[in-house]
Design a protein that fits this description.
Helices cover 28% and strands 18% of the residues. The chain is globular, with a radius of gyration of 14 Å. The strands form two sheets. Strands 4-3-5-6 form a four-stranded mixed beta sheet, covered by helices on one side. The protein has a two-stranded antiparallel ribbon with strand order 1-2. The longest helix is centred in the N-terminal third of the chain and has 12 residues, at 40-51. The chain has a single domain, classed as 3-Layer(aba) Sandwich (Glutaredoxin). It contains four helices and six strands; from the N terminus they run βββαβααββα. The protein has helices spanning 40-51, 74-85, 104-113, 147-156, and strands spanning 7-9, 15-17, 25-31, 56-62, 125-128, 134-138. By secondary structure, the protein is of the alpha+beta class.
Length: 159
């Protein structure tokens, strides 16, 4: 299996199969609108703008698993992201990312990397390589523009 075997829904309700991103790098991030880390949306948008033409997709996955910091509807999340942070990268529908009810993508990651790789808070990041394998995992406090993340992205994107 690979990440390309999983599908989300867009925040607008349309299918969002990760296979659509085959050949691209994907940074999957569980997001929340009322978290102290919410300003990371700015860095995520910068990554999307800076690396999108080279094949990076940033995928925000709103979740309410940590501190109930994403309690709103999908429509309110979308409006918040667009108006407050000018988010233009794809947003999935709101999903659980931990526990028995976690989205299958997140359960697959744990099967591949072990329980220690589970998100511990909002804005945990998984980097998916163009072939659908997991290329990296970055904790919530690692900012999107941290050199560690940028180096990992650059390593898997075409020159």
């Amino acid at each position: 299996m690979s990440a390309h075997d999983f599908s989300f829904r867009t925040i607008g309700g349309a299918p969002l199969p990760l296979s659509d991103f085959a050949g691209k790098a994907v940074l999957v991030v569980n997001t929340a609108s009322a978290c102290g880390l919410t300003p990371q949306y700015e860095g995520l948008e910068t990554l999307w703008r800076d690396y999108g033409a080279r094949g990076l997709v940033v995928l925000g996955v709103p979740c309410n698993d940590f501190g109930a910091q994403e309690p709103g509807s999908e429509a309110s999340i979308k409006t918040f992201c667009e108006t407050r942070f000018a988010v233009d990268f794809p947003l999935a529908s709101k999903e659980a990312v931990i526990g028995a009810g976690a989205h299958p993508f997140y359960r697959w990651v744990l099967g591949e990397l072990g329980e220690g790789a589970a998100p511990k808070w909002n804005f945990h990041k998984y980097l998916i390589a163009p072939d659908g394998s997991i290329a990296g995992t970055f904790g919530s406090r690692t900012a999107p523009l941290d050199p560690e993340i940028k180096t990992a992205i650059e390593a898997i994107l075409p020159a």
